[in-house]
Design goal:
alpha/beta, elongated, Rossmann fold, 2 domains, eight-stranded mixed sheet, 335 residues, five-stranded parallel sheet
């Protein structure tokens, strides 16, 4: 049987590497994470480049980390047939380059649903239980009663009902929330779809936004969704509503959002992603008391590599037997 060379450019723990190697006897697995990092722009360990070049030259399968990547990477992979990218979003310039190459690309969609949905719930709880105010009073040693609210009975709107949104629905149901959503494939308003009270086509976004106490962005960033939340959409929301973004910063017009938060069009925002990352120190978002900020980490958890490896191993089984892979990226749609 001919060997299938699998190069792990993304870091996996030894036990997870053993799981990869055990999928099929034909797989010859090499850990190249250190070599890959040493070949990144600005790294000085050029003596290791030759070893990496040799591995890439024979690689048929590549487990790809998030960018940055070594320069001219794919000019060194003549035998490459499949890249398993660890991330879900393929909107960055580097990752879009994957889609121009002549090999199959799969992504990590679905492996981040649990931590991201828990993040969404945590942000909603922070706002209804006034966590920022409680922390500020602690810092000031101020004992002052605060009026809390409940999630029960409030309406959550999900923009882009995909796998992350489905997990958000499952958790929000436990809090007794009403849930509405938009979905690209829906052509008219539908009821009781995927456990959601109402699903709207994207053209009816404004109508949906007006119903919501919380709005969470889980839509992929494409030309169609860039700045889909702007002044018109923000003004359609309730002045008591909170906008949560775990998608990409580009789906929201950040200048319009800052105006909305300063002028009271909406009550607050929970932001994990931004138009420019890291968020510049001069951004007005830092100083707004009605905004929570995290540095693009909603998908992180101690289980991230475990879930990713489960997906990778399943795809390795399928690849070895000639079956269709999971999460193949449509190179036309870009997701």
């Amino acid at each position: 049987m001919a060997a299938i060379n699998v190069v792990l450019a993304s870091r996996l723990e030894p036990e997870l590497q053993r799981q990869v190697a055990a999928v099929d006897k034909r797989y010859k697995v090499r850990d190249a994470a250190d070599l890959f990092e040493a070949a990144l722009p600005g790294a000085s360990q050029s003596s290791q480049h030759t070893e990496l070049d040799g591995l890439l030259k024979e690689a048929e399968v590549l487990l790809m980390p998030r960018a940055p990547w070594p320069a001219n990477l794919f000019s060194q992979t003549p035998k490459l047939k499949w890249v398993q990218y660890i991330g879900a979003g393929v909107d960055s310039a580097a990752v879009k380059g994957l889609l121009k190459e002549n090999f199959i690309t799969t992504n990590g969609r679905g492996t981040q649903n649990i931590p991201m949905s828990e993040y969404v719930i945590s942000v909603m709880l922070m706002f209804v239980k006034m966590a920022p105010q409680c922390f500020a009073q602690k810092q000031a040693k101020l004992w002052q009663k605060i009026d809390f609210q409940e999630l029960r009975g409030k309406t959550l709107g999900i923009v882009g009902l995909g796998s992350i949104g489905e997990e958000v629905v499952r958790l929000a149901r436990a809090f007794g929330m009403r849930i509405v959503a938009t979905r690209r494939s829906v052509t008219k308003k539908e009821l009781s779809v995927m456990g959601v009270d109402a699903v709207y086509p994207r053209r009816d976004l404004l109508e949906m936004l007006g119903e919501c106490d919380f709005v969470v962005m889980t839509v992929a960033l494409t030309d169609e969704t860039t700045k889909m939340i702007g002044e018109r959409e923000l003004k359609a929301m309730k002045p008591t509503a909170v906008l949560i973004n775990v998608s990409r910063g580009g789906v929201i017009d950040e200048a319009a959002l800052i105006r909305a938060l300063k002028e009271g069009w909406i009550a607050g925002a929970g932001l994990d992603v931004f138009q420019k990352e890291p968020l510049p120190p001069e951004s007005e978002l830092w100083a707004l008391s009605n905004v929570t900020i995290s540095p693009h980490v909603a998908a992180r958890s101690e289980m991230r590599n475990v879930r990713l490896n489960t997906l990778f191993c399943e795809n390795l089984k399928r690849y070895a037997s000639g079956q269709p892979l999971i999460n193949v990226i449509d190179k036309v749609r870009g997701y």
